[in-house]
Specification:
19% strand; alpha+beta; 12 helices; binds phenylalanine; two-stranded antiparallel sheet; 367 residues; 40% helix
Length: 367
């Protein structure tokens, strides 16, 4: 059995321990000291155990001394623990400080669909020419989709439209999913007085499905009505648009006679291209690509809408958004627009905060 030691020994031990605790610089090292002293096999604990073999008088004294030493150690450790804990927290706070002035990270995962982007571009170009955006319903009456546009009941153009009809209402009238954005021409003229200068981007529907047709697709209509509007305005406006949209300054644009019941005369608009070597190149060569339909608004349509055809003239045009997006961005299959395939979106999509690129825009193009 060993001697616990004299009071002087304990004092010396206490001083040594106090120094060790004060100089320790991490919580881990402090815990190691605590175990070394107060743990089950710690030095102070072992000394406590020796008390059992002592005679009662000496045990009492030594017991008191040891308990006091134990308390002092525990207090010193606790104090140091608090200090080190605070320091550790301060270090963490300093290291993890958030710099709120940093710019936020771009959301690189999100992409704008090429159709949204194309509509933005078309709207941006026509906005520069002073057009505003108008809208109408997807579910249309037969009157707005056909009759008011000079397509009466027995007109062959009705068959060409592959119309989706809704079930007949109480009066036996069947509404349609609009087959083009042209009904918004009529709605706008009914609701406003000339001058009119609108474009109408929106969804349209036809019962047709293959690599170049989808039952739901998008068009953008255009309508300009004022006193003295003539074919030259139509030409200039659409040439400027084609050149701005495809970003080709001298892009050849051709007006080819055509027929639409709601315009007279009517013209299909083609742009110059080459198809050499399998690839399609817009802007040069001796081939032509159809882009949109257009014409001077038929006087009958003006009259149907309450405009005096003797006083007002105008032009209208309509283009397929998918078609011009496919041509501009080299997207080969129309059906992929609606597949919601993320890999496709990463390839053909656009970063949301990029401004729509209208390339050369209209600068220098119009006068
Ligand atoms: N509505 C026609 C179509 O869907 C396009 C067009 C609009 C033609 C306006 C001329 C004028 O094919």
């Amino acid at each position: 059995m060993t001697e616990i030691g004299t009071m002087q020994d304990l004092e010396a031990l206490a001083a040594e321990i106090a120094t060790a605790i004060e100089s320790v610089s991490s919580l881990e090292a402090l815990e190691a000291i605590r175990i070394d002293l107060l743990g089950k096999k710690g030095r102070v604990s072992l000394m406590m155990r020796e008390l059992g073999g002592m005679d009662p008088e000496a045990r009492k004294q030594a017991g008191q001394e040891l308990n006091r030493l134990k308390d002092r150690i525990a207090t010193a450790i606790e104090l140091r623990q608090t200090l080190l804990g605070d320091a550790a927290l301060n270090d963490r706070l300093a290291a993890e400080a958030v710099d709120v002035t940093l710019p936020s990270r771009p959301h690189t995962e999100a992409r704008l669909h090429p159709l949204s982007r194309t509509i933005e571009e078309v709207v941006a170009i026509f906005a520069e020419m002073g057009f505003t955006v108008a809208e109408g319903p997807d579910i249309e009456s037969d009157y707005y989709n056909f009759t008011a546009l000079n397509i009466p009941e027995e007109h062959p153009a009705r068959q060409e439209h592959d119309t989706f009809y809704l079930p007949p209402d109480a009066e036996g009238k069947r509404k349609v999913l609009r087959t083009h954005t042209s009904p918004v021409q009529v709605r706008t003229m009914e609701a406003t007085e000339p001058p009119v200068r609108i474009i109408v981007p929106g969804r349209t529907y036809r019962s047709d499905h293959d690599a170049t047709h989808s039952p739901m697709f998008h068009q953008c209509e255009g309508l300009v009505i004022a006193d003295g509007i003539h074919m030259g305005h139509l030409n200039g406006c659409l040439i400027d648009f084609c050149r701005a949209f495809f970003g080709v300054d001298g892009l050849p644009v051709r007006f080819r006679p055509s027929y639409f019941p709601f315009t007279e005369p009517s013209a299909e608009v083609d742009i110059g291209c080459t198809r050499d070597g399998g690839g399609l190149k817009i802007g040069a060569g001796d081939d032509w690509l159809e882009i949109l339909g257009s014409g001077m608004v038929n006087p009958r349509v003006l009259a149907n809408c309450g405009y005096d055809p003797e006083k007002y003239q105008g032009f209208a045009f309509g283009m397929g958004i998918e078609r011009i997006a496919m041509l501009k961005y080299g997207i080969p299959d129309l059906r992929t627009f609606y597949d919601s395939d993320l890999r496709w979106m990463r390839h053909y999509g656009f970063l949301p905060f990029d401004a729509p690129s209208v390339h050369a825009g209209l600068v220098g193009g119009s006068s």
